[in-house]
Design goal:
Layout lengths: L6 H4 L12 H16 L6 E5 L6 H12 L2 E6 L6 H13 L14 E6 L13 H9 L15 H11 L4 E5 L2 H5 L5 H9 L2 E5 L5 H14 L3 E2 L1 H9 L5 H14 L3 E2 L1 H10 L8 H10 L3 H10 L4 H15 L3 H23 L6 H12 L17 H4 L7 H11 L3 H16 L12 H5 L4 H8 L6 H18 L11 H12 L12
Parallel strand pairs: 1-4, 1-5, 2-3, 3-4, 6-7
Helix pairs in contact: 4-5, 4-6, 9-10, 9-11, 10-12, 13-14, 14-17, 15-16, 15-17, 16-17, 19-20, 22-23
Length: 508
């Protein structure tokens, strides 16, 4: 039985000549690698940023192949702690080809770290002693081992400072690497002093068309041009998704890829496409029909509630017409109210349609033409959301729940806030059960509720919380029933009376 291989790996470009799109980005990578031929450049790393499937890692591998250099690859979504990153760096420094000629100059080894935006936590470093024990497997206590992302970012930053080999980082969104706490700007600056950022864009239709033809020719599959065009029209510029679609289509109809086959495939399977927020918003604001806006809203990699925040923030800066802003706000208001209903009524099923109202607020609400290129902004209030939360509280919740600090900040804290904030549909600041069960203080509970400590209402809440907490923690006095003289005598007689034999025997 012939093994079915993955076409995305089978047709992965092995040379830059096989690459399509992002020409200027590839040129910057080549120039940076050329600098390594002369020695160690000032910027020892590059960061490739772009949506999934645009060929970031493929470019790095192909260029390295053309230069005859080795590649050591680490996926940061799998191994992310300090020991894993240092191990990759060590391998990069010591890696030698089995066929290396000792008389020749040693080849460079590119250290490729993919999905670095999955690294969470801060820049707190791990001691060298713990790192060495982890790498050597010398931990006797399992609790002492490095788990999760422990020290990952700090070790990555150290790698960029000290590496003698070129380091290529890749991610989908840079904010994942910088972090979403109040210190993200500082983290960004520290990383940027050691790396060059190169932004990748989605492939053009022409690039997709060239790749489709190349793959089909290599697989010896005949095709109709309109079939390829139909497939590309449904592709948002994702090279990987295109190759996967071709493999599926050719496995069901191997003799020829025709237009009907593609249309049937597209209609039978709604593509699960995830479009990055910034290019997605740009297309959304330029859309002219409700149908187009709804499709884009579904594709954008944000929930309907998250998208409301993004659109509300950008409408104010992108819309110049007062009436357009008013129409947009009306749609956003209705959408927000309808979406909140799904938390209040489990029978509510119109969230799909209500969520699309926010998309209309960004498109058809505006009656003036947008410029050729628009630049949506990251909402400032989302950057600083929960940044004022007590760091100790985050640490405690992380320890209690077993989640990372990043997960607590981004997932657990929003849920707690929604349950305890009075301005939320289900929020109730006077509901203390959850906070008490977690062992939180009154001030921490107020922090979760989003209540400033200097307000009288907050002080009253803290007083009530402390009162209930003290009642729970105070041991109840044992009530002793003091018998009367007659009762004492009766009790003594009962104690002296031998117990009746029940027929059961005991060991003692």
């Amino acid at each position: 039985m012939t093994e079915i291989s993955d076409w995305t790996e089978r047709h992965r470009p092995s040379s830059e000549s096989h690459l399509e799109g992002n020409e200027s980005q590839r040129k910057k990578i080549r120039e940076w690698l050329d600098d390594w031929k002369k020695g160690v450049p000032k910027k020892r790393a590059i960061l490739l940023i772009g949506p999934p499937g645009v060929g970031k890692t493929s470019v790095a591998r192909a260029v390295a192949q053309d230069m005859g250099w080795n590649v050591i690859e680490l996926n940061a979504s799998d191994d992310r702690n300090a020991a894993a990153i240092r191990k990759a760096a060590t391998q990069g420094a010591t890696h030698r080809s089995l066929f290396h000629d000792p008389s020749e100059k040693p080849k460079r080894t590119i250290i490729l770290l993919d999905e670095v935006d999955h690294l969470s936590g801060g820049l707190r470093a791990v001691s060298n002693d713990r790192l060495n024990k982890q790498m050597l497997g010398e931990f006797e206590d399992g609790n002492a081992t490095l788990s999760g992302d422990t020290g990952g970012k700090a070790e990555l930053l150290n790698l960029l400072k000290t590496t003698k080999q070129p380091v290529i980082l890749a991610c989908n969104e840079a904010m994942g690497l910088w972090g979403k706490s109040s210190s993200w700007r500082s983290t960004k600056e520290r990383f940027q002093s050691h790396l060059t950022i190169i932004n990748f864009v989605r492939a053009s239709d022409e690039a997709l068309r060239n790749i489709a033809r190349r793959v089909l020719k290599s697989e010896q599959v005949e095709y109709d041009l309109d079939a390829v065009d139909a497939l590309i029209a449904n592709n948002p510029g994702d090279l990987r998704a295109l190759v996967r679609d071709l493999q599926v289509l050719c496995s069901t109809k191997s003799d020829k890829l025709d237009y009907k086959t593609v249309i049937d495939f597209l209609s039978a399977s709604e593509r699960d496409v995830s479009v990055e927020i910034f290019p997605g918003l740009e297309k959304l604001y330029k859309s002219k029909s409700a149908t187009e806006a709804m499709k884009l809203g579904i594709a954008i990699d944000k929930t309907p509630m998250e998208l409301i925040n993004w659109i509300h923030w950008n409408n104010a800066s992108l819309f110049s017409d007062k009436k357009s802003i008013e129409r947009g706000n009306q749609a956003l208001s209705v959408s927000s109210k309808m979406l909140s209903a799904m938390f209040e009524n489990t029978a509510h099923r119109s969230w799909y349609w209500s969520g699309q109202l926010s998309n209309l607020a960004a498109s058809v609400a505006n009656q003036k033409d947008m410029p050729d290129r628009i630049y949506p902004r990251y909402p400032d209030f989302l950057r600083s959301q929960f940044s004022r939360s007590n760091a100790t509280l985050i640490d405690r919740l992380s320890e209690i729940s077993g989640m990372s600090k990043s997960a607590v900040r981004e997932e657990f804290m929003p849920l707690l806030t929604a349950l305890h904030s009075d301005d939320q549909p289900l929020g109730e600041s006077n509901h203390f059960d959850i906070s008490l069960s977690l062992g939180l203080t009154a001030e921490e509970h107020a922090n979760i509720c989003g209540m400033p400590l200097n307000r009288k209402s907050t002080k009253d809440l803290i007083s009530r919380y402390n009162l209930i907490q003290s009642e729970i923690e105070s041991p109840k006095e044992e009530i002793i029933d003091i018998p009367t003289a007659g009762e004492e005598e009766s009790t003594e007689m009962m104690e002296e009376t031998p117990k009746r034999d029940t027929g059961q025997s005991t060991l003692f």
